[in-house]
């Protein structure tokens, strides 16, 4: 079913509007005989015409693709310069995501962690874009972008410590739900659950980069968000700010077809998220998000423009959320199981890229087995380790609320908890059991050390 | 409930039943929000789209400010707008629409227009592992934003004073159904916060007919003469547990609960409506007991407890035998791994009650 849709997509890809079309609209709208509205580029026309399409002629925005469904380059498509090492690194990173996801998903089911979100089906979008960025470009994610961090070297231990909320969780010190990763060292701003808040923030990050003589012209801000989050006012604010106060800000929309149960078709009536870019005067491309090479090419080129021009660029990656929204969701309550199975089978980003690699002798079934076994082993080890680690010390909860000196109210409340724990920590069973979960079992806190 | 047909319901079913009743009686009533069409992430709108059609029960795009504004527009046209914000933690993008628009629509138009037909439901409070973005109790923000002093409007009936958004928080399925129906039909916009941990855990025999419970009225759950214990939503249950512990403390806590206090008569009140809050009931109670402990999950500073404490200290100053005591979350974001030591629990409430009784 999906195969039929694929073949109907035109073979050549152009980022911007088809030239023939452009010239015909130009003649219609800009027969300069009537001049322009003062202070604008808008030609006066006697034709009463409405328009409702960014590429004109009622056509949809094209989708850029490099590899077909079986991993062969499309006619006319330019392959990225890609050596075996990089290609393998990309494939391996894509391959390990579902392994980690499977494990953590099941660990959540067993009640060992509170929550988890997988990125099944979006591996190409995440890894392809991560690979196209400089490792010190500033990333502001939504929550399904753990793969960007892993690409940059975030360890399995860091993943596990955050998800289990252990005392070694440097990302959030046990203060956030699982998958809310962050790392200053890896230039990945900590995830926040409220949707879309990171989008205008990215415009500010981009502007700071532009003002920094050491990073100007070298780095950009990169913001990831879902097609659902793009309905928030913050999306529009972010696009608008990055375009009117120009900054090297790269907007990457993961259009995976769903925002929890709400299909993308109920999220917008226009031509996806890409159609909004030109409204803000932003260079825009739509890309097949299941084709890792297309994503890689598009994001590399987007990044180049973004940095060279110091201006925002928007990339809309079309993909599909194969997994449930999160461990709190059962997606078969709102979409047929068969639809998901079809997408998994017919448009699998991993299979597509693997065929590309195999055709070049860069990958084999044997390598696949060895690699997967190794990842499983390492991830499992990290998981077991984190599982055995205590939470941070109890008093940690009062830290990092403020920088500098702790204000009196927090100080007094901390003292109040100390008083309560001293009084009841040893005798009240629910507290005693709970205290054992923290590093130092509350003792350091109680002894005021 | 005698003589009325009832059905066993949990709280999300109670909410759903109220929505169904409201839509049955009022053809202008619509239910909308993120993911409501398939039943909502907490199942409160389950089956409503099938029952009433997608024109009346629909998904919105993901925009809380849009949801609130859209609801105000419907209400301004005399329709009944029942909006869902998926989590109370995500209500802030709608803050402007609620505080500057819904709450002032009537006032600023000299009573010509109003957003009174708007009700915004949102799941709130903690579940124990939600961290700071799935646990909040933001009622305090709206209490200030909407203007507390307008409480008297209910009694004067003067539209000039009707500039508030009301805030309602139920503790059980029966309460949820009756208070939600009253909220939907109240001539003022209402924010209806549903403690999400109770959606499944709280179960009662709920009348299946259409009934309302009064807004702006607290409910006294246990009468008493020695101390007034005031709360709303989830911690009402922790208060009940604390009072059991006070009466018969477990062996391990016995030495912390003096024998003389074990027969203390504590009056437990569920405030139910946060704005306008029922100052008469609370002040009358505190005038008799001379002691007040307020329990809420939100942080202390700028919280509802602080407002109540100030008012009660003013009204009952000479009757008070102890300072008004607050048992609240700390002034930090709700910290995921530390929630058990962040949220008021039965022991912290017990401690506060004992301290206040022995002050
Ligand atoms: C402001 C806000 N509103 C609602 C939510 C609840 N919520 C969490 S994820 C989600 C869907 C997001 O969909 P999308 O942006 O498409 O990202 P995807 O999950 O598909 O990756 C919703 C509604 C939230 N986190 N923040
Ligand atoms: Mg999505």
What does this 3D model show about the protein?
The complex is a heterodimer of chains A (449) and B (359). Chain A is of the alpha/beta class and 449 residues long. Chain A has three domains: 2-49, no CATH class; 84-388, Rossmann fold (3-Layer(aba) Sandwich), CATH 3.40.50.970; 394-447, no CATH class. Chain A has 16 helices and eight strands. Chain A has helices at 2-7, 19-29, 84-109, 123-132, 146-151, 156-164, 198-211, 233-244, 276-279, 292-309, 337-346, 349-359, 365-387, 408-424, 429-435, 443-447; strands at residues 138-140, 188-189, 221-226, 249-255, 258-259, 262-263, 283-288, 313-318. In chain A, the strands form two sheets. In chain A, strands 2-1-3-4-8-7 form a six-stranded parallel beta sheet, sandwiched between helices. Chain A has a two-stranded antiparallel sheet with strand order 5-6. In chain A, helix 3 (84-109) crosses helix 4 and helix 6 (156-164) crosses helix 13. Chain A is globular and about 90 Å long. Chain A starts with a helix and ends with a helix. Mean pLDDT of chain A is 93; it is low at 1-27. Chain B is α/β, with parallel strands linked by helices and 359 residues long. Chain B folds into two domains: 6-207, Rossmann fold; 219-357, Rossmann fold. In chain B, 34% of the residues lie in helices and 19% in strands. In chain B, the strands form three sheets. Chain B has a seven-stranded mixed beta sheet, sandwiched between helices. Chain B has a five-stranded mixed beta sheet with strand order 9-11-10-13-14, sandwiched between helices. In chain B, helix 12 (304-315) links the parallel strand 13 (292-299) and strand 14 (325-329). Chain B is globular and about 60 Å long. Chain B starts with 5 loop residues before the first strand and ends with a helix. Chains A and B meet through helix 14 and helix 15 of A and helix 3 and helix 13 of B. Magnesium ion binds next to strand 5 of chain A. Chain B: Its cofactor is thiamine diphosphate. Chain B: This is 3-methyl-2-oxobutanoate dehydrogenase (2-methylpropanoyl-transferring).
């Amino acid at each position: 079913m999906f195969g039929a849709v694929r073949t109907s997509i035109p073979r050549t890809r152009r980022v911007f509007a088809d030239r023939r079309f452009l010239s015909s609209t130009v003649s219609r709208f800009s027969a300069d005989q009537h001049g322009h509205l003062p202070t604008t580029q808008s030609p006066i026309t006697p034709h009463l015409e409405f328009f409702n399409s960014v590429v004109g002629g009622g056509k949809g925005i094209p989708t850029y693709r490099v590899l077909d469904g079986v991993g062969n380059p499309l006619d006319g498509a330019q392959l990225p310069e890609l050596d075996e090492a990089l290609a393998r690194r990309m494939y391996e990173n894509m391959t390990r995501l579902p392994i980690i996801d499977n494990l953590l998903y099941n660990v959540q089911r067993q009640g060992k962690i509170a929550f988890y979100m997988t990125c099944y089906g979006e591996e190409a979008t995440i890894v392809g874009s991560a690979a196209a960025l400089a490792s010190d470009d500033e990333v502001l994610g939504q929550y399904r972008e753990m793969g960007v961090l892993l690409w940059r070297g975030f360890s399995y231990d860091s993943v596990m410590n955050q998800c289990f909320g252990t005392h070694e969780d440097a990302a959030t010190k046990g203060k956030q739900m699982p998958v809310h990763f962050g790392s200053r060292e890896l230039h990945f701003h900590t995830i926040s659950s409220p949707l879309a808040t990171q989008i205008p923030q990215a415009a500010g990050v981009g502007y700071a980069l532009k003002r920094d003589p050491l990073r100007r012209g070298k780095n950009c801000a990169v913001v990831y968000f879902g097609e659902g989050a793009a309905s928030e006012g913050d999306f529009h604010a972010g696009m608008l700010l990055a375009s009117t106060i120009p900054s090297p800000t790269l907007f990457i929309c993961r259009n995976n077809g769903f925002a929890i149960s709400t299909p993308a078709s109920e999220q917008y009536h226009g031509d996806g998220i890409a159609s909004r870019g030109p409204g803000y005067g932003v260079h825009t491309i739509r890309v097949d998000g299941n084709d890792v090479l297309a994503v890689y090419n598009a994001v590399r080129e987007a990044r180049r423009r973004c940095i060279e021009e110091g201006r925002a660029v928007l990339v809309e990656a079309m993909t599909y959320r194969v997994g449930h929204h999160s461990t709190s969701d059962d997606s078969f309550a709102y979409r047929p199981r068969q639809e998901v199975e079809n997408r998994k089978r017919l448009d699998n980003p991993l299979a597509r890229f693997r065929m590309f690699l195999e055709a070049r002798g860069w990958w084999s079934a044997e390598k696949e087995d060895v690699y997967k076994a190794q990842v499983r082993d390492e991830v499992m080890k990290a998981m077991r380790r984190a599982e055995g680690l205590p939470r941070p010390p109890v008093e940690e909860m009062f830290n990092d609320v403020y920088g500098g000196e702790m204000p009196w109210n927090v100080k007094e409340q901390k003292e109040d908890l100390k008083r309560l724990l001293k009084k009841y920590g040893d005798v009240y069973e629910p507290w005693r059991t709970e205290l054992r979960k923290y590093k130092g079992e509350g003792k350091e806190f109680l002894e005021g050390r | 409930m005698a003589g009325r047909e009832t059905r066993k319901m949990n709280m999300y079913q109670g909410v759903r039943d109220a929505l169904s009743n409201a839509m049955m009686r009022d053809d202008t009533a619509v239910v909308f929000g993120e993911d409501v069409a398939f039943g909502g992430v907490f199942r409160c709108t389950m089956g409503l789209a099938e029952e009433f059609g997608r024109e009346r029960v629909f998904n919105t795009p993901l925009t809380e400010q849009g949801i609130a504004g859209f609801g105000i527009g419907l209400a301004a046209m005399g329709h009944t707008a029942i909006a869902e914000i998926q989590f109370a933690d995500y209500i802030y993008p709608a803050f402007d629409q609620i505080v500057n628009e819904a709450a002032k629509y009537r006032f600023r138009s000299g009573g010509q227009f109003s957003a009174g037909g708007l009700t915004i439901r949102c799941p709130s409070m903690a579940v124990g592992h939600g961290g700071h973005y799935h646990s909040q109790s933001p009622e305090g923000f709206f209490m200030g934003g909407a203007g507390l002093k307008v409480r008297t409007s209910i009694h004067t009936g003067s539209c000039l004073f009707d500039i508030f958004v009301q805030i309602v928080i139920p503790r059980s399925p029966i309460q949820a159904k009756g208070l939600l129906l009253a909220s939907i039909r109240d001539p003022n916009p209402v924010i209806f916060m549903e403690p999400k941990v109770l959606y499944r855990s709280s179960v009662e025999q709920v009348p299946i007919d259409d009934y309302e419970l009064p807004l702006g009225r607290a409910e006294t759950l246990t009468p008493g003469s020695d101390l007034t214990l005031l709360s709303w939503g989830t911690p009402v249950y922790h208060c009940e547990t604390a009072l059991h512990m006070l009466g018969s403390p477990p062996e391990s806590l016995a030495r912390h609960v003096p024998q003389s206090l074990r027969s203390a008569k504590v009056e437990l009140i569920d405030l139910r409506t946060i704005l306008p809050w029922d100052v008469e009931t609370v002040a009358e109670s505190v005038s008799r007991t001379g002691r007040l402990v307020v329990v809420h999950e939100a942080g202390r500073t700028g919280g509802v407890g602080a407002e109540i404490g100030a008012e009660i200290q003013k009204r009952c100053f000479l009757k008070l035998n102890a300072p008004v005591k607050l048992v609240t979350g700390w002034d930090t974001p709700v910290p995921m791994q530390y929630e058990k030591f962040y949220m008021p629990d039965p022991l912290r409430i017990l401690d506060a009650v004992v301290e206040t009784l022995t002050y």
